[in-house]
Amino acid sequence: MYKDDIITEVRQNRDAYAREHHYNLDEIVADLRKREQSHPGRVVARRTSLAPASKTQK
Predict the structure, then answer these.
(1) CA 33, CA 13: separation in Å to the nearest integer?
(2) Is the dihedral of CA 25, 29, 15, 44 positive or negative?
(3) Cα dist from 44 to 5, 23, 36, 40, 47, whole Å
(4) Do the domain assignments include residue 27?
(5) CA 46 vs CA 2, 26, 29, 40, 49: distances in Å
(6) Is residue 45 part of a domain?
(7) Tell me: the pLDDT tens digits for 18-31?
(8) Is the dihedral of CA 44, 48, 49, 55 positive or negative?
(9) Distance between CA 31 and CA 39 in Å, rounded?
(10) Residue 18 and residue 27 in contact, taking contact as beta carbons nearer than 8 Å
(11) How many domains does the chain have?
(12) Confidence of residue 8 (pLDDT cuts 50, 70, 90)
């Protein structure tokens, strides 16, 4: 099977982060919320409308 170095690194980082929080989902969520609150700007620009973006037809 093909080994992708980037995927391997992402999985190692994910496991290290989970290990820091004892693989406890409540601790992970609390940390992510704390990080979100301390971030200086909005991470994701959310749409103000639920209507899908219009697509141009060719």
Answers:
(1) 19
(2) positive
(3) 27, 26, 11, 12, 10
(4) yes
(5) 37, 25, 20, 16, 9
(6) no
(7) 999 999 999 999 99
(8) negative
(9) 12
(10) no
(11) 1
(12) very high
